[in-house]
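Tutorial, part two.
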Amino acid sequence: MAKLSVRDLDVKGKRVLVRVDFNVPVKEGKVTDDTRIKAALPTIQHVLKQGGKLVLVSHLGRPDGKPDPKYTLKPVAQRLQELLGKPVAFGEPQGDVTLLENVRYDAGEEKNDEALSKKLASYGDVYINDAFGTAHRAHSSTAGVTKFFKQSAAGFLIEKEIQYLGKVLSSPDKPFVTIMGGAKVSDKILVLEQIASKVDTILVGGGMAYTLLKAQGKPVGASKVEADKLDVAKKILSSARIVLPVDHVVADKMDAAAATQVVADVPDGKMGLDIGPKTIELFKAELAKAKTVLWNGPVGVFEMAPFAAGTKAIAECLASLKATTIVGGGDTAAAVEKFKVAEKMSHVSTGGGASLEFLEGKTLPGIAALTDR
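Running the prediction step on this input gives:
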């Protein structure tokens, strides 16, 4: 990696300001999913082991630049304390580990305000960014703060993200298969353009498949189609080897109680809400050949049981492969967690929008701002 890493720093006796991504779901004062907190533990534990003191900074939700008890990080500090097995101070820096209150309580954070950057920098002697999920934002705690440090380094999580996602862009092991899902073609156009020349096969499911099928002249019924993207869809279809669904699970509405049927062509009045059993087998046969798989976007409305089979089958198939398997995007990460195969993936990106922008070939301000090696 071209940037300074946490492993390059001498942190003994130093205060280390670490930007983490603790934007986690909290219900009734309890953290309900601690995946992102656990993802930051290797960097936190490394700094402690090397004799540094930690001041952690994160956002939670969108409090609109002012204090809002709904978005306090206090429950996160409690959960971190449980996971670390040692005290975590909250608010004002003290002891070995402190978690500051939600940085977005200050309106200056999202404006990359210099005064806030300077205030945050006063809490540390060196800076580490380990929040890949916010690395695509030029905010005070991700970009502006680095101007006030001699050394700004990437944490282990960011290092891992760059390692896996970077290899996809530069030199993936072949055959390289990409699974693209989710609702919209427009969300994935730039990624598809970036990887089209590197990928061997693109499997397309989810809502975006219906815009591509429509572009081929296939019947899609009442499925969601981006009518203004049909020309783009035709261009995508001619730019790479694309495999589209050959059957569909349809219903007349997106509802867990709706009556479903499996069809080859989506009839009028019905919506395609999952890939069908023949498509599952078709996709699995393609994946069986792969040495590298990138999956971004579920292939059906997996949150509802009648439309979850396709995404579940893909998740389980990837878990069984002897290949590098990379899962990107919040919904896809949620899917592999739900189907209990996340730990069997080579890498589950914590990035959401950041992983998409990285794969689009964009510069991420939070990474660009770190010290070069």
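The domain at 6-158 is CATH 3.40.50.1260 (Rossmann fold). In part three we will examine how such features are distributed along the chain.
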